[in-house]
Amino acid sequence: MKVSAIIPSGGVGSRFNSPIPKQYIKVLGKELITYTLEVFQNCNLIDEIIIPANESYFELLNQIKIKNNFTKIVKIIPGGKERQDSVFNGLTCKNFDKDDLIVVHDAARPLLSNSLLENAIQKAEKFDSIVVAIKARDTLIESSDLEEKIVLNYFDRSKIYYAQTPQIFRYRILHESFLRAKETNFLGTDESMLVKKANFDVKIVEGEFQNFKITTQTDLQTFEKMLK
Fold first, then answer.
1. Is 208 exposed, middle or buried (0-12, 13-18, 19+ CB in 10 A)?
2. Fewer CB within 10 Å: C terminus or N terminus of the chain?
3. 140-143 vs 151-155, strand pairing mode
4. What does DSSP say about strands 129-135 and 140-143: parallel, antiparallel, or unpaired?
5. Residues 6 or more apart from 62 whose CB is under 8 A from it?
C-alpha cells in the first residue's frame, strides 16, 4: 500500500486580488506552496506527491522542486477548470492499487502539522475515509437574502464542524465517488462531499485551528506573523 498526496494547485485565487495565484506568492522569501510541500516531503508516511497545476506555473514548480530537494514530487500535471477536475486528473495520471491511500490537501493551507497529518493517515488506514475538521465554537446564524441581513434561524453548533484538509480515502472509494459525480454532473466543494454523496461513510478526525486556509490578504499577513 502506498500513500500518495495530491496537492491541487490550479486555483487562480479570485478573492485574493493578486496578479498571481496566492499559492505562488512569496512569504519571507519562499512561495506559499513551498511551506505546504515541506510538510509532505518531511512526513515519513507520505510516499509521493502529485501536483495538478496551471501549465503556466510548471517551470516555477520544477524550480521549487529542485531548489528544495523535494524528492517525493513524482508528477506535476495539468489541473482542471475546477478543483474537482484537478484532483480527478491526479487520480488518473498513474496506476494506483485499489487500497492505496490518497491524501488531498490544499496548496494554500501551509500550517498543517506533521502530527495531525500522521494521525489522519493512521485513522484512514483503519477507517478508509476521513476528513479533518474542527468543531464550531461560535453561534451559527442563518440570515435572509436581503441586502440588509436579518436573522432567520440559529443552528445547534454542537453537531457542526468546519471541514479542513487533508482528506484521505482509499483509492477505490475516491475514484468511484468521482466517477459517480461525473455521471450526475455533481460539483462538490471538497472530496468528502463526493464520497458521502456516493454513500460511503466518512469519519471526522479532529483538526487544528492553526491549519487554516489562506484565502485573503489578512490570512496571508497572519501567516507571516506566525512564521516570525
1. middle
2. C
3. antiparallel
4. unpaired
5. 76
Is the CB of residue 136 less than 8 Å from the CB of residue 206?
no
- Identify whether the C-beta of residue 212 lies closer than 8 Å to the C-beta of residue 109: yes
How many Å from the N-terminal Cα to the C-terminal Cα in the chain? 38
Q: One-letter amino acid identity for 141?
A: I
Alpha-carbon Rg for the chain, nearest whole angstrom, is 18
C-alpha cell at 39: 510538510
For domain 3-128+165-189+208-227, which CATH number applies: 3.40.1440.60, 3.90.550.10, 3.40.50.720, 3.30.70.270?
A: 3.90.550.10
pLDDT tens track of the chain, all 228 residues? 999 999 999 876 666 667 899 999 999 999 999 999 999 999 999 999 999 999 999 999 999 999 999 999 999 999 999 999 999 999 999 999 999 999 999 999 999 999 999 999 999 999 999 999 999 999 999 998 878 899 999 999 999 999 999 999 999 999 999 999 999 999 999 999 999 999 999 999 999 999 999 999 999 999 999 998
Listed in sequence order, the residues at least 6 apart from 209 whose beta carbon sits closer than 8 Å to its beta carbon are: 134
Contacts of 177 (CB under 8 A, 6+ apart): 169, 191, 194, 195, 197, 198, 200
Please say whether the dihedral angle defined by the alpha carbons of residues 61, 65, 66 and 71, taken in this order, is positive or negative: negative
pTM metric for this prediction: 0.95
Distance of alpha carbon 226 from its chain centroid, rounded?
21
